[in-house]
Amino acid sequence: MSRRLSLQWHVFGCLLSVMICLAIWHVYCRGAFNITASHLPYVAPHEAAKVLNQAEYWNEALAQATQIHRQQIEQIETLATWLPTEVSFEELTNRLHESATTFNVNLLSVDQGNQIAGARVGVITCTAIIQGSFAAICEWMESLSGESQPLWCDAIHLSPHNGGTNAANACEATITLRAPQSSGGTLSERLTALRAIDGH
Amino acid sequence: MNTVHLSYDLIPVEFRNEVDARRIRGVWIFLIAMLAILLGHFVFTDWLRVEVANRCARLMAAKVGPIIDIRAAAITQSEANLRTAKSIDQIQSARPDDSLLQTLASVTVAAKPFHDDILIDSIDIRLPLEEHLATNGVEPQSQTVAVVDDLVPRVLIRLRVSDPLVIESFLEALRDQPRLAEVDAIVDPHSGDDTQQELTIYAVPQATRVIP
Known about the structure:
Helices cover 54% and strands 22% of the residues of chain A. By secondary structure, chain A is α+β, with helices and mostly antiparallel strands.
């Protein structure tokens, strides 16, 4: 009876020790627990110390960059004041007629040119034929470049009207004008988009 | 040893087996307890390792994570700012100015001292355009030269002079103008009568900005 008992203890003991040994082996090799915070960005300790020291610097850098960004948005707003999204030819003609009467030049005709997509801004071109004194024409052209929405004058053909002399009052000028607009310009379109993104 | 052996013989077999069994049980229990302690040790060590790693990661994430985010945001923003600033500058350079008027003015300023001797018939000014610079610079195609030639930037002044001696000094005056370069004159051969000489002056306008 007791011999069977000791045999039972042997069997039980062997089984249990083997199981515990297996468990030890498993824990030793594989580990019993998992790192739950593994999804968090791992930073090596020495780098973490460096980054912690730079906290002030990066805060300042971000504040500065944001400040610059805000200033740039303001700059883009000011760009938008002279660079409308789109200029219609009728509007352009009306503006030219208005300023022509103000500066006492005779605007004979305005011919619509084409729309050109530039790398920076788009332009709509037109050719204007005007008559007036040389001084008046110069003043008119100056007003064109000084307006709130200024125009480019890229070419002029100036000759005396009525076959006049050098001091003649009446000159005739054919002027090619270019009104900048942001649509059609690769850069300005991108900036307008930036402004729109920031606005919303 | 002998006495022990002798004494065993005196003990009933049943009792001896029971003592053996108890001893065997004790040995196994001791072994199992040792193994269990070993297992416990390993489990505890592992738990400690994981716990430390987790705490470390959480701490790092809480303290360093925001700074890393700020750093990334600052770098991205300043890079974007650089690009935007460049674009703004380029668009700013497309703002219309009075280049044409300045060029015209430089011609009239140069002509002023010779007011009595020269008669300007026509002034033709064409400023360089962005598109021409692009086509001229990138691919100079021979078949488009004729088309482009009509659009080449130039200043062309047709005038009549009463005194041929004035021509040189007028050209000098034009060359002194910063807005004009490569000033050259061609005298019209079949126009020279006694009193007047017809003249065409060519120059290249110097624009401060490229017209879009």
